[in-house]
C-alpha cells in the first residue's frame, strides 16, 4: 500500500469571503421645505381633498390644510401627503383600504385629509392604483390597501386587503421604495432590490412569464401558496456571477428600473410593448436585463405611465420614450412613437428638477419653480382650464401659482397633485375663491 500523502496546509490561507456592499446614501425627495398642496383633475371619489361638492378642477386649486406639507404623491384615485413632522395624511377612494384609516360611518371622511396611524417618522411616501407605502426613518416599510391583476383583487397579505398599516417586509433595512400601479419595489442597505405585487407584465423581475399568472397550474385556481409567492417580498432574479449591487430604483405603472451601484448601467423589467423600458424587442421582460439605451445617461429620476417613460438627467434634461397618443411624449403633434430615448425639445432651455407621469400625462418642474404639463387633458388633470390634449410642454399658469414656486408634482389616474412654496403656504386667509381659480 503506498504511503498516504500529507495534506499541504497553506501558511497564509486565502479567504474567499466577500465583503458586504453597503449603501451609504440614497437620494430621496428633500423634506426641508414645506409647501402648499394644490390639486387639479377629477375629484369624484375625493382624490382632490376639496370636499364632496367639488367633482373636478381644471385649474390648480388649493387644499385647505393646517399641517406643513413636505411631500406629495398621487395614487390611482387617492392622494398621500407627508408632513414636516413625518406624519401621513390621505384622502380619496377608500373602497379597498388605500387611505389606511377608517372612513366608514364618518361623513365626507374620504373627501378631506385625515391622518394615518403609524409607529414612527416617515421619510418617503409612494402610492399605486389601490395601495400606499411609506418608508420610516428606521428602515421599516408599512403598506396598506391592495394589489390587483387580471383576475381582480389580489389582496396585500394572506389576510387579503390591509385597511390599516402593516409591516410588509421584515428583517431588512430599506433605504428607498417605489410603487407601480400594482407592485412595490424595495432597495435595502446592501444594494439588493426586492419586489412584491402583481407580476403579470414582468414588473417583479423574479417570476417567469409562465408562472406570472397566479392561476397558472393544472387546476387553474388560486391557492394560498400561489398568492403568497407574489405578495411576499423577495429579491429580483439575477445571475450570482454578475455580482450586481444597486444604488437607486424607480417604477413605472407596469415596469421597474434599477441603477447599478457606482455605474450608469440601468437594469429594467416589465411591460415593453411600446419600448418604454428601452429594449429592442416589443414584449414584456420578466427577468432583469440591461437597457443599453437607458444606460447611456446619468439619471436623477425615471418615471413612467402606462405606455411611456420620462427620464431626467443629472444635468436637468428630460427624455421621453414610448407611445405617442394624446401627446404624452411632448414631442409634437406630428411625432411618432419614440423607440429610443428622445430629448423633449420644448424643455431644452430649462433646467428641470422634477418630473412625473400619470397614466397618459407628463409633467416637469423647472429650477425656477415653473410647472409644465402635456398629454391627456380629458379630466382637467393638466390644469390648463380645459380638457384638450397637449402635444408639447406648456407652462401651467393660474392665480394659485402666481406667487408660488412649484417644488414637486405627482400625477395619478385622472388627477394631479402639486407641492408649491410661498410665504403663506396653506394659511386659510390666503385661500383664493373658486372664481379666482377659473
From TrEMBL:
InterPro entries (UniProt xref): Ran_GTPase-activating, RCC1-like_dom, RCC1/BLIP-II, Reg_chr_condens
Domain of life: Eukaryota
Keywords for this protein: Guanine-nucleotide releasing factor, Repeat
Keyword Cytoplasm: no
Residue runs in coiled coils: none
Signal peptide: none
Mapped RCC repeat ranges: 35-85, 86-138, 139-190, 191-262, 264-315, 316-368, 369-422
Positions of the RCC1-like domain: 37-418
Record protein name field: RCC1-like domain-containing protein
Source organism: Hypothenemus hampei (Coffee berry borer)
Amino acid at each position: 500500500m503506498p504511503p498516504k500523502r500529507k495534506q499541504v496546509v497553506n501558511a497564509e490561507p486565502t479567504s474567499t469571503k466577500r465583503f458586504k456592499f453597503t449603501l451609504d446614501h440614497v437620494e430621496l425627495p428633500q423634506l426641508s421645505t414645506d409647501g402648499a398642496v394644490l390639486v387639479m383633475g377629477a375629484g369624484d371619489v375625493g382624490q382632490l381633498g376639496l370636499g364632496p361638492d367639488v367633482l373636478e378642477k381644471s385649474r390648480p386649486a388649493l387644499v385647505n390644510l393646517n399641517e406643513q406639507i413636505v411631500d406629495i404623491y398621487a395614487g390611482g384615485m387617492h392622494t398621500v401627503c407627508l408632513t414636516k413632522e413625518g406624519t401621513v395624511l390621505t384622502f380619496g377612494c377608500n373602497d379597498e383600504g388605500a387611505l389606511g384609516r377608517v372612513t366608514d360611518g364618518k361623513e365626507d371622511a374620504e373627501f378631506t385629509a385625515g391622518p394615518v396611524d403609524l409607529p414612527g417618522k416617515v421619510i418617503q411616501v409612494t402610492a399605486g392604483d389601490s395601495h400606499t407605502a411609506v418608508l420610516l426613518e428606521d428602515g421599516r416599510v408599512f403598506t396598506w390597501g391592495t394589489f390587483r391583476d387580471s383576475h381582480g383583487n389580489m389582496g396585500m397579505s394572506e389576510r387579503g386587503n390591509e385597511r390599516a398599516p402593516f409591516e410588509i417586509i421584515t428583517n431588512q433595512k430599506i433605504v428607498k421604495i417605489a410603487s407601480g400601479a400594482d407592485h412595490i419595489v424595495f432597495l435595502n442597505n446592501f444594494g439588493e432590490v426586492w419586489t412584491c405585487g402583481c407580476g403579470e407584465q414582468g414588473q417583479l423581475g423574479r417570476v417567469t412569464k409562465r408562472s406570472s399568472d397566479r392561476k397558472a397550474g393544472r387546476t387553474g385556481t388560486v391557492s394560498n401558496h400561489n398568492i403568497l409567492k407574489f405578495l411576499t417580498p423577495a429579491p429580483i432574479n439575477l445571475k450570482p456571477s454578475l455580482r450586481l449591487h444597486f444604488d437607486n430604483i424607480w417604477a413605472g405603472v407596469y415596469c421597474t428600473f434599477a441603477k447599478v451601484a457606482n455605474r450608469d448601467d440601468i437594469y429594467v423589467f416589465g411591460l415593453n410593448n411600446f419600448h418604454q423600458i428601452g429594449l429592442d424587442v416589443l414584449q414584456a421582460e420578466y427577468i432583469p436585463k440591461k437597457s443599453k439605451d437607458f444606460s447611456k445617461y446619468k439619471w436623477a429620476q425615471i418615471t413612467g405611465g402606462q405606455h411611456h417613460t420620462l427620464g431626467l438627467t443629472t444635468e436637468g434634461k428630460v427624455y421621453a420614450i414610448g407611445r405617442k397618443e394624446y401627446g404624452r411624449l411632448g414631442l409634437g403633434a406630428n411625432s411618432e412613437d419614440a423607440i429610443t430615448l428622445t430629448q423633449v425639445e420644448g424643455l431644452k432651455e430649462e433646467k428641470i428638477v422634477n418630473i412625473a407621469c400619470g397614466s397618459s400625462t407628463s409633467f416637469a418642474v423647472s429650477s425656477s419653480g415653473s410647472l409644465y404639463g402635456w398629454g391627456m387633458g380629458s379630466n382637467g388633470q393638466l390644469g390648463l382650464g380645459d380638457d384638450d390634449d397637449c402635444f408639447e410642454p406648456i407652462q401651467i399658469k393660474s392665480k394659485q401659482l402666481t406667487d408660488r414656486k412649484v417644488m414637486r408634482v405627482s400625477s395619478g389616474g385622472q388627477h394631479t397633485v402639486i407641492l408649491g412654496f410661498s410665504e403663506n403656504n396653506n394659511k386659510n386667509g390666503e385661500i383664493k375663491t373658486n372664481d379666482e381659480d377659473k
